[in-house]
Amino acid sequence: MIRGRPSAFVRARVCAARRAVIYCRMESRSHFIRGKRRMDVCMKNTRRVLLCALCALALGMNTSRAVADTRLYVFQAGAPPAELSATANAVAPEETLISLTFAGDCTLGGETSSQASKHSFRSRVRENGMAYPFAGLKALFAADDFTIVNLEGVLSDSAEDKVKKQYNFIGEPAYTAVLTEGSVECVNLANNHSGDYGSRGRADTVNALNAAGVGWFDEDTLCVLEKDGVRVGLTATLFTLGAEKREKLDRQMEILRELGCAAIVHTMHAGEEYAPTAGAGQKKIAEAAVALGASLVVGHHPHVAQGAEVTEGVPVVYSLGNCCFGGNFNPRDYDAVLLGAELRFREGALSELTWTLHPISQSADRRRNSFQPVLLSGGEAGRVMKKIQEASPKRLEPYVEGLGARQETIRYEGQEE
């Protein structure tokens, strides 16, 4: 499955302007509403082009080549799209910057028993519209090339095949509009709630995502993000990475490299829920992914933000915490974090990676979950970063107002600084 969209992104020279726009939360930020689209087409908000370009012009920056060609490919490891295979060795542009944003657990819906409540996710969306859940993060999501979240739950009109377990999360297939209006391009389905309503519920979820033009991936399905011919692969692990699963992941990464991916991001849905620090299992997965060739490792599942570190030159963020979590009316911990990653490629090879932590609250209202996460600033952002630092083995760069907690850029051998 191939999804392409013309998008606009003012390259590295306007990053500072873009971040300033995000954190100032300008009233002019975009509110693009996506209608019905072909399965293979995913449009990014074109109004952000004007916003970024105006910022760049105001700073006297060159906005040439502001328009980028971005695409998403979703496929089983053994059956890559012919277009990817045919262009795997295409000549890459001299320099390309791909910007990614990762968010943690997102449940668009909740338990069927609670959805009639006036405080439920469903009631909030019915009252405020599909753009409501990600309105507080939209400016950040719209400014990148791809936003990836962990979609924790089923999107289906049928609750007949409910699996017997403690919590079962389900929402309407129409909630894909929450993703598209929030500028989310891709979701991870390698989690413990994508099968809450059996194979039928999972199939309905995949069909809804496909129809909306939203990319997805799991332990068996790969996703390739492409911008101007430069490719980044996405892989996933659920809970553990034993010998058999490690062998499969090794083969998946090999396939992605054969298809021209210059970087691979591995996501892991693992760890102990509400544990403040990463456990041995999470570290084992991260170490294995790094050894197999991942350029970045991103985690979720514990429902809280955990520590981060650089392992063998690879950033590892063990848990982002919740983002828009419809499964809990009053979460134990509202603190969470987003991960921004800027990957710079020169002649098709990864030359630099800059990663930034953006503290958030999963609700604008701390008395009850509003299901509308917001960026934090000032002392609150610093407080969340202090928690993440305490859970990290080495020093992290602190939060800076208007920029986030921007970590030291990683430069790769053989590439000019």
Notes on the protein architecture:
This protein has helices spanning about 15-25, 45-60, 80-85, 120-130, 140, 175-180, 200-210, 245-260, 280-290, 380-390; strands at about 1-10, 65-75, 95-105, 145-150, 155, 170, 185-190, 215, 220-225, 230-240, 260-270, 295-300, 310, 315, 320-325, 335-345, 350-360, 375, 405, 410. It is of the alpha/beta class and about 425 residues long. Residues about 5-65 have low confidence and may be disordered.
SSE pattern: EHHEHEHHEEEHEHEEEHEHEEEEEEEHEE
Mean pLDDT: 87
- The value of Rg in angstroms is 20 Å
The number of E-state strands comes to: 20
Q: What would you call the shape? A: globular
Write the layout of secondary structure elements.
Blueprint: E1 2-8, H1 15-24, H2 47-58, E2 67-76, H3 82-86, E3 95-107, H4 121-128, H5 138-142, E4 146-151, E5 154-155, E6 170-171, H6 176-181, E7 186-188, H7 198-212, E8 215-217, E9 221-227, E10 230-238, H8 243-258, E11 261-269, H9 280-292, E12 296-300, E13 308-311, E14 314-317, E15 322-325, E16 335-346, E17 349-361, E18 374-375, H10 378-390, E19 405-406, E20 410-411
Parallel strand pairs: 3-4, 3-15, 4-7, 5-6, 7-8, 10-11, 11-12, 12-14
Antiparallel strand pairs: 1-2, 2-9, 3-16, 9-10, 13-14, 16-17, 17-18, 17-19, 17-20
Short characterization:
The chain has 417 residues and is of the alpha/beta class. It has helices at 15-24, 47-58, 82-86, 121-128, 138-142, 176-181, 198-212, 243-258, 280-292, 378-390; strands at residues 2-8, 67-76, 95-107, 146-151, 154-155, 170-171, 186-188, 215-217, 221-227, 230-238, 261-269, 296-300, 308-311, 314-317, 322-325, 335-346, 349-361, 374-375, 405-406, 410-411. It is globular and about 55 Å long.
